[in-house]
Amino acid sequence: MHSLLDKKKCIIQSALDLIQEHGFHGCPVSMVAKNAGVAAGTIYTYFENKDSLIIGIYEYVAEEIKKYVAERDDASLTFKDRFYNYWKNLTDFYELNPSAYGFYDQFLNSPFNSEEIQHKPNAWLDFAYAFFEEGIKLGEIKELNPIVLSILVNTNVNSIVRIKKNFKKKLARNNMELDEISHLIWDGIKT
Amino acid sequence: MHSLLDKKKCIIQSALDLIQEHGFHGCPVSMVAKNAGVAAGTIYTYFENKDSLIIGIYEYVAEEIKKYVAERDDASLTFKDRFYNYWKNLTDFYELNPSAYGFYDQFLNSPFNSEEIQHKPNAWLDFAYAFFEEGIKLGEIKELNPIVLSILVNTNVNSIVRIKKNFKKKLARNNMELDEISHLIWDGIKT
DNA sequence: GCTTTGTGATTGAACGTTCATTCAGTCCGA
DNA sequence: TCGGACTGAATGAACGTTCAATCACAAAGC
Fold first, then answer.
1. Which residue in B25, B170, B188 is closest to A188 by CB distance?
2. Which residues contact B78 (CB under 8 A, 6 or more apart)?
3. How far apart are CA A190 and CA A182, in angstroms?
4. CA-CA-CA-CA torsion for A126, A127, A132, A134, nearest 10 degrees?
């Protein structure tokens, strides 16, 4: 029971690292297996095929993001503070888990992210949706569609993390500019 | 001379359509060739290999976006109007050229978009950079790094186009919400 | 306590397919 | 007649997937 879940996680983690470095197609099943310390065939005990391995990773990552952000949310704060917290936690998560970030960012814009996947319930998106819906109910943010809001905010966090990653040296001194973006978005959505 | 360029364009266009529909790896060279009405080998007259075909497409798309947006810019307007124009034109371009959009969005987050590519001069990014730099010089937008500004704005346009595409039915009545985003960003960056 | 049997995970070589790339031969315009 | 573009069958490497064999271990039987 226990080691089975461990092994599945191990396979996912191994694929995650390879995909972040080489992209979906720079990571053959054989390499994932080697990296995870199992035989190629073993992967097919846990996943039907390579595609469902990738979907599995996506669901795993979404779950991890949600856990990280949700458990650091504090409903007793003002919604403004909760928003900044959300922003910071999401950023932190990506920076602590670069391979999760690399995977997620690629996945969202890939053809794996089919309509079917998009309309499946998803731990992280559901959380984000509920979060912004609450903000609206509390009367603290504008009555925009919560789906639009969550995509908007998540996209901007993503792109800031990407900027930090790609322009590390050039922007070292003025990361402040990037933090400005969160104020910009908050000012835009608050009532 | 003439038909050579035509053929190259034709190959690029053919690959563009296939990639948008099936992703980078759902488009074998043989299929690109068939779609373009040439033999597989011919592609290697114009591109060294498949990777450089993809880089070639990227450069082509960047050039097309720049052309579209640049030739509709009007320096005699207020910078605010120019900003809204920029926003609208970029959105229009993507909607008129869904396969360019599909390709570009995938490419940006793929491992093809290496550090090397990012630091190569690029018609579209250079234009966007110069555009926002001018806004700063005119004192109409905040003194943020123009690179950050252009990535920020382009990312948000991208994600709005994606929302429109994916949630066409659900949001049909209230596309207004999406237009709100441009005001939100403008209010955030203006001085 | 020891052996047998059953179950299901694990292995990795082998298979068949797909695909990028090559190249000998052909075509065509100058 | 020459030179470069073009063709598309051939090549061979890479890869996802399968499966017969092996292993680990627990339950059953003695």
1. B188
2. B140
3. 12
4. 110
Percentage of chain A surpassing pLDDT 90? 75
Please answer yes or no on whether A187 and B188 come within 8 Å at the CB atom: yes
Based on its alpha-carbon atoms, the radius of gyration of chain A, rounded to whole angstroms, reads 18
Testing the interface with A: which of B109, B118, B164 to mutate, by most A Cβ within 10 A? B109
Which nucleotide C1' is nearest B43 CA? Answer: D6
Give the CA-to-C1' distance from B40 to C20 in angstroms.
10
pLDDT along chain B (191 residues), means of 10: 75 94 90 96 96 96 98 97 98 97 91 87 96 97 92 94 83 71 93 90
Q: Which amino acid is at B69?
A: V
**Higher model confidence: residue A169 or residue A129?**
A129
**Residue, of A113 and B96, whose pLDDT is higher:** B96
Contact call for residues A14 and A58 (beta carbons, < 8 A): no
CA distance B156 to chain A (A): 7
A41 contact to strand D (CB, 7 A limit): yes
Residue B189 and residue A184: Cβ atoms within 8 Å?
yes
Whether the CB-CB separation of A157 and A91 falls below 8 Å is answered with yes
pTM listed for this prediction:
0.91
pLDDT of A4 strictly over 90 = no
Given a cut of 80, whether residue A75 has pLDDT beyond it is: yes
Q: How far is the CA of B149 from the C1' of D24 (A)?
A: 60
Distance of CA B139 to the CA centre of its chain: 27
**Distance in angstroms (rounded) separating the CA atoms of residues A86 and A69:** 6
Rounded to a whole number of angstroms, the distance between the first and last alpha carbons of chain B is: 50
